[in-house]
Specification:
The protein has one domain: Nuclear Transport Factor 2, Chain: A. It is built from 2 helices and 5 strands, in the order αββαβββ. Strands 1-5-4-3-2 form a 5-stranded antiparallel sheet. A hairpin with a 2-residue loop joins β3 and β4. By secondary structure, it is of the alpha+beta class. The longest helix has 18 residues.
């Protein structure tokens, strides 16, 4: 049940962001990692990351970023003030600790 509430919350945030007509750009990102950086899931074990693996929830996130939804199967996101502070893409839907993730935003 907690999982469904989280998924619904994330979906509502994503839909709100997509509905905005003009986007300037995703918020400034932390200096410790940049778009295109590669890490492993074990590097993202902070509680601030939300893992999204349902394709119906992943697709809007990737589309919002201008990325083909077929490129990644799941994402880790950090949402702050209604915008994506960080998005990491991963192939597959099982977040093994040694699995590669790529910084998308």
């Amino acid at each position: 049940m907690k999982s469904n509430l989280l998924k619904n919350y994330i979906k509502s945030i994503v839909l709100q962001e997509i509905s905005k007509q003009k986007r300037t750009r995703v918020r400034s990102l932390r200096e410790s990692s940049n778009v295109g950086d590669i890490k492993s899931v074990s590097d993202l074990e902070d509680h601030k990351y939300q893992f999204i693996s349902d394709s119906q929830d992943v697709a809007p996130v990737l589309e919002y970023l201008g990325i083909d939804p077929d490129e990644y199967d799941s994402v880790f996101v950090v949402i702050r003030d209604g915008d994506y502070e960080e998005v990491w893409g991963m192939s597959g839907i099982v977040p093994h600790l040694n699995k590669r993730v790529e910084r998308l935003a």
